[in-house]
Amino acid sequence: MTIHVSPEACPALVLNADFRPLSYYPLSLWSWQDAIKAVFLERVNIVSHYDTVIHSPSFEMRLPSVVSLKDYVRPARHPAFTRFNVFLRDRFQCQYCGSRDDLTFDHVIPRSKGGLTTWENVVAACAPCNLRKANRLPSEIKMFPHQAPFAPTVHDLHNNGRAFPPNHLHKSWLDYLYWDIELEP
C-alpha cells in the first residue's frame, strides 16, 4: 500500500544549533521535503522522528519531526518592522479598545501631522477605532494607546509569540518549546 504524504503533513520543528527554535511565532517549521533535503545535504541533525516512513526504490526513512541545525544561526538583533510584528508586539489587540477583530494599524501621530511610520509611532488598531481616530492627535479625540508604541527586541516578540501556540503541536516538539505545559515530577 502506498501512502501519499502531502507537503503540509508531518512538518519538522527546526531548532538552532543550541536546540532553541529559530522562531516561536511563527513557529519555525519545515515541510517534510525540506527537512529531508537538509538531512541529505548534511545541514541538520535529526533529533526526533515521526512514525511515518517514506520509501524510494533504494531507500527508506522515518520522517524527522525535530531537526537541529549543525551551524548556529545568529538571531537577528532587531526585528523587522512589519505589520505582523507590530501585531505581535501589541499581542494582536487594538491598543485603543482591546478588540482582537478586524485589526489594522494606526499612526499615533498621523502622517498628515508629521508622524512617521516607525515602531515608535505605529500601533495595532481595530478598523472601527482607526476610523474614529482618523487623522487626529490622541489628545484631540481623547484616544490614547494602552501601551506606548516602542521598538521591541527579538526577545520581546518571542515572549509574546509564546502566548499564541500554534494549533498543532506534535508531542516530540514539547521538550523544545516553552509553552505552559505541565512538567513531570
Write structural notes for this entry.
One of its GO terms (molecular function) is nucleic acid binding. The chain has helices at residues 32-40, 83-89, 127-133, 138-141, 154-162; strands at residues 12-15, 29-30, 44-56, 59-69, 103-107, 122-126. By secondary structure, the protein is α+β, with helices and mostly antiparallel strands. It has two domains: 7-75, no CATH class; 77-150, DNA Binding (I), subunit A (Orthogonal Bundle), CATH 1.10.30.50. The strands form two sheets. Strands 2-1-4-3 form a four-stranded mixed β-sheet. Strands 5-6 form a two-stranded antiparallel ribbon. Strand 3 (44-56) and strand 4 form a beta hairpin. The longest helix is centred in the first third of the chain and has 9 residues, at 32-40. The two termini are 42 Å apart. 21% of the residues are buried. Mean pLDDT is 87; it is low at 179-183.
Give the CA-based shape: elongated
Instruction: State Rg.
Output: 21 Å
* Order of strands, widest sheet: 2-1-4-3
C-alpha termini separation: 42 Å
Averaging pLDDT over every residue, what do you get?
Answer: 87
Helix % is 10-25%
What is the element string, with H for helices and E for strands? EEHEEHEEHHH
The CATH topology of the largest domain corresponds to DNA Binding (I), subunit A
Report the count of strand segments: 6
Structural class: alpha+beta
